[in-house]
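Lay summary. Proteins are chains of building blocks that fold into shapes, and those shapes determine what they do. In this project we predict the shape from the chain. Here is one chain we studied, written as its sequence of building blocks.
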Amino acid sequence: MTSFYTRKGDDGYTGRLGEGRIPKYHPVTEAVGAVDEATAALGMARVSVRGEMLPQILLTVQRDLYHLMSEISAAPENAARFRKIDADRVIWLEEQTDLFTNQVEMPRNFILPGDSPGGAALAFARAVIRRAERHVARLLHENQLENMDILRYLNRLSSLCFVLELYENHAWGKTAPTLAKQV
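And here is the predicted shape, written in a compact code that computers can read:
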């Protein structure tokens, strides 16, 4: 019978891809955890959206985040071996964002999530992605990560989620977003 626990983390340390173990509160672990949460949030969005193309786009992003977590988790000497996120993946996100930007009207004010189930799930995913972005920025600034495209990817992904939120709200029949400030 397969066990779903190893007991290896009971000492408060976790393994890396490669040699060594780090504390579970290490900045690398925090970054991976935030990306993992973003992946789960995108999964909630994927099952909530009505837009025809959105589930496949979100699934592709979830798979990209899986690769992104692998590179962050890798010991420095192994990181390049796990590198899948590069400028081409960032460009792909920009293309998706541009495609949907042309189909929505950009609000002139801050909006509140909750105009549709899918839109709210995308707004939540965007917020979690922004937290992951902050953790990755720390790793880059502290020279614990060298692939700048990971940060770019997360930055573009949060923009895509915002545009998809607007698109999804429209798919649910909401023509104007709820503004944060009453006019």
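What the prediction tells us: Residues 22-171 form a domain with the Hypothetical Protein Ta1238; Chain: A; fold (CATH 1.20.1200.10).
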